[in-house]
Amino acid sequence: MASTNSRKRSGVNRRVKHWSGWVLLLFVVAGLLAVGASRASGPQTPEDRIDDISRRVACPVCDGESVFESQNSASRAIRNQVGELVAENDLSDDEVVAFIETRYGAQVLLVPRASGFDALIWVLPAVGFVCGVAGLAVVFRRWKREAAALADPTDADRALVEEALRAEEFES
Fold first, then answer.
1. DSSP 105
2. Full-prediction pTM beyond 0.70?
3. What is the structure's pLDDT at 12?
4. pLDDT of residue 138
5. CB-based contacts of 94, cutoff 8 Å, min separation 6
6. How does pLDDT run along the chain (172 residues), one tens digit per residue?
7. Residues with Cβ < 8 Å from 93, sequence gap 6 or more?
8. CATH of domain 45-111
9. C-alpha dist (Å) from residue 2 to 5, 7, 66
10. List of residues 6+ apart from 61 with CB closer than 8 A
11. N-term to C-term CA, the chain
């Protein structure tokens, strides 16, 4: 009876540990993240656009602050310029950021471009993640092979353990 229950549990464990289920879960999570990240919140007011653009541009004087956060006069000047460009309503948000970048240089971008040398900033973490997952898969596969190579305990092994436990109870 106990051996049939353990066989049933090991069958369930094998199915749970099967890689295809994890791959399916990965695709579902990636799909949900893609949908959630691409959803638009609807039309924005000019003030919202100015705030969003200001959050994407770094203060040229401060270290690690956006134009939105900084109270520096250079940041205020950039915010005012962004406000003027948004008020004209001729440029999209990306075009306004590109205009600011041409005026102040690429170092004012808080979020690097996804092209050229800057693309490495986006690619290297993904490559590191893939290498890590591949390394874990290799290690887990090796552990699985090693565990499968271990033999199930025999009746003689069980008798030896019972004898050792009895001896231990007798000593204490």
1. -
2. no
3. 55
4. 96
5. none
6. 445 555 555 555 666 567 777 788 888 888 888 877 776 665 578 888 888 888 888 888 888 788 888 888 888 888 888 888 888 878 888 888 888 888 887 778 777 666 677 677 778 899 999 999 999 999 999 999 988 888 788 899 999 999 999 998 888 7
7. 49, 52, 53
8. 1.10.8.640
9. 5, 9, 64
10. 70, 72, 74, 75
11. 33
Say if residues 59 and 66 touch (Cβ distance below 8 Å): yes
Between CA 90 and CA 45 the distance in angstroms is 15
Other Cβ atoms within 10 Å of 68 Cβ, number: 19
Structure tokens at 127: 């490559």
Residue 157 tokens, joined: 């092994």
Helix 93-104 to helix 73-88 angle, to the nearest 10 degrees? Answer: 140
CB 81 within 8 Å of CB 27: no
CA-to-CA dists, residue 53 to 69, 72, 123, angstroms? 12, 17, 24
Domain boundaries, the chain: 45-111, 115-151
Q: What angle do CA 148, 151, 152 make, to 5 degrees?
A: 105
pLDDT reported for residue 8:
54
User: In 18-118, where does DSSP find H-type helix?
Assistant: 19-38, 46-56, 73-88, 93-104
